[in-house]
């Protein structure tokens, strides 16, 4: 019900806790940010302000230039000061109240990549951190920032509506769908079984967006994250739905295991604007979905000429349902981009 998320940050800048609603505002999953440095999420110009507010007297010691900054590691940083409770003001003191603004990295923002948040709360003792100094002596509870983080600019009615429909999907490394949450089933109309049975996930992507998505897919395999990707997905009602997505690799034992994609539905006007910006970077207009994904010396058996008569379209549609047979006959890999495009029902275009 909160228009924001809860955040608990230790005196050294580690995120001890975040409520799961952080994903609705910043796009990061709760599990991904907990026990990580908060400074990795904060704009470089705002990091010192955040560090000041972690100190009870708003006067943190400065780390020497040759020492690593506290955001560089997970251990007790050089700027973290250990206090005894009797050295600090009473826990109910107004000295420990905090209200300030910082810009946080936001995967859902398509302009600056940062979202200005108002953090309001207080410093309180954080117990049971299970940390010990190098000498092994027990560590007394230290102050941590307990804050409610809310966007500085209230979201518009449209943003509230689309925020509530953010959905997540899980894929194999080649993008084959594995799972979809409840909101995704509402937006797209498919059941999880229908998504899993269809092979590669690219047959749900608009032909004009396939190369663009594939390029970001390759980037994600290299860097671990795709960045914001705006494209059209085919719904079960044979309609195209614009979404803004961010895909990231999930690792296990140091090796990539699967892909998790966070997707936010967009209205057609937003999608069209992104398409216009994208087409400016391409050497030719690639907007109708009728362009060929590969140079081909032979006609495509199951993707008909868009200018042919309506009478021929129905026969072509029947051919498209036999895509497996055609693909094998013509030597086209059904899991390739061209094979995925040939599997689509041409009526959607």
Automatic annotation (TrEMBL):
Ranges for domain PAS: 1-61
Annotated Basic and acidic residues bias: 322-332
Main subcellular localisation: nucleus
Biased composition (Basic residues): 312-321
Domain of life: Eukaryota
Recorded GO MF terms: nuclear receptor activity; transcription cis-regulatory region binding
Chain positions covered by the region annotation Disordered: 58-83, 305-336
Subcellular location as annotated: Nucleus
InterPro entries: AHR/AHRR, PAC, PAS, PAS-like_dom_sf, PAS_fold, PAS_fold_3
GO biological process, one term: xenobiotic metabolic process
Gene Ontology CC terms: aryl hydrocarbon receptor complex; nucleus
CDD domains membership: PAS
Keywords (A to Z) from UniProt: Activator, DNA-binding, Nucleus, Transcription, Transcription regulation
PANTHER family: ARYL HYDROCARBON RECEPTOR (PTHR10649), ARYL HYDROCARBON RECEPTOR 1 BETA (PTHR10649:SF18)
Protein name per its UniProtKB record: AHR protein
Organism, scientific name: Oreotrochilus melanogaster
């Amino acid at each position: 019900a909160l228009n924001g998320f809860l955040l608990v940050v230790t005196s050294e800048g580690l995120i001890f806790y975040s409520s799961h609603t952080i994903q609705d505002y910043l796009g990061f999953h709760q599990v991904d940010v907990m026990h990580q440095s908060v400074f990795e999420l904060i704009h470089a110009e705002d990091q010192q302000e955040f560090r000041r507010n972690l100190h009870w007297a708003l006067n943190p010691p400065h780390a020497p230039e040759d020492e690593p900054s506290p955001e560089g590691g997970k251990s007790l940083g050089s700027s973290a000061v250990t206090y005894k409770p009797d050295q600090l003001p009473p826990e109910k003191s107004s000295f420990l109240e905090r209200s300030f603004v910082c810009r946080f990295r936001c995967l859902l923002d398509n302009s600056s990549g940062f979202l200005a948040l108002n953090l309001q709360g207080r410093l309180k003792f954080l117990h049971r951190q299970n940390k010990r100094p190098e000498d092994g002596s027990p560590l007394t509870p230290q102050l941590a920032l307990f804050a409610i983080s809310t966007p500085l600019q209230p979201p518009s009615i449209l943003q509230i509506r689309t925020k509530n429909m953010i959905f997540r999907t899980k894929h194999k490394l080649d993008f084959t769908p594995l799972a979809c949450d409840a909101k995704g089933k509402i937006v797209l109309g498919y059941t999880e079984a229908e998504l899993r049975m269809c092979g590669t996930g690219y047959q749900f992507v608009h032909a004009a967006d396939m190369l663009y998505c594939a390029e970001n897919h390759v980037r994600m395999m290299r860097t671990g994250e795709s960045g914001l990707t705006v494209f059209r997905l085919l719904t079960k009602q044979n309609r195209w739905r614009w979404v803004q997505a961010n895909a990231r690799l999930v690792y296990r034992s140091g090796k990539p295991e699967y892909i998790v994609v966070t997707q936010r539905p967009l209205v057609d006007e937003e999608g069209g604007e992104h398409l216009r910006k994208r087409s400016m970077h391409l050497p030719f207009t690639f907007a109708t979905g009728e362009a060929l994904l590969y140079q081909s010396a032979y006609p495509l058996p199951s993707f008909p000429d868009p200018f042919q008569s309506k009478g021929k379209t129905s026969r072509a549609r029947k051919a498209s349902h036999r895509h497996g047979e055609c693909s094998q006959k013509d030597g086209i890999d059904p899991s390739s981009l061209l094979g995925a495009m040939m599997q689509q029902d041409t009526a959607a275009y």
